[in-house]
Design a protein that fits this description.
It is a single chain. Helices cover 27% and strands 26% of the residues. By secondary structure, the protein is α+β, with helices and mostly antiparallel strands. A 6-stranded antiparallel beta sheet has the order 1-2-3-4-6-5. Helix 1 packs across helix 3. The longest helix has 17 residues, at 90-106.
Length: 118
């Protein structure tokens, strides 16, 4: 299973139309970006939300959340995974998506990457 398409549609609805909104497929999942900065995404059936590093530990206390586990046992600070049971209602989903969008929008825009020519 790559990523939950239904959850992707729910996230798109929650984000709504925004300038500089992008979607990138990576690692079998889907990432949503604002001005080139990741704000949230979907990995399998879970929502990934980027949060302010100083809120990270407190937000992990919420029911249905856990850290994002990367290869080699790394746990990136600022990325929280939210399980499907904690996203059942639109209100639950909207709250998490809004948090990610707010943080992503607060970051300076990334410069567009240029492709290297061979």
């Amino acid at each position: 299973m790559a990523y939950d398409e239904r959850l992707a549609e729910r996230v798109r609805d929650a984000i709504g139309p925004r300038p500089a909104l992008g979607e990138i497929k990576m690692f079998g999942g889907l990432c949503f970006t604002l001005n080139g900065n990741m704000c949230c995404g979907i990995m399998k059936d879970e929502l990934m939300v980027r949060v302010a590093p100083d809120e990270f530990e407190k937000l992990l206390e919420a029911s249905g959340t856990h850290t994002m586990d990367m290869m080699k046992g790394r746990t990136p600070v600022g990325f929280i995974m939210i399980e499907p049971l904690a996203l059942r209602t639109a209100k639950q989903l909207d709250s998490w998506v809004k948090r990610g969008v707010t943080f992503g929008a607060s970051l300076p825009p990334k410069k567009a990457k240029t492709k290297k020519r061979k």
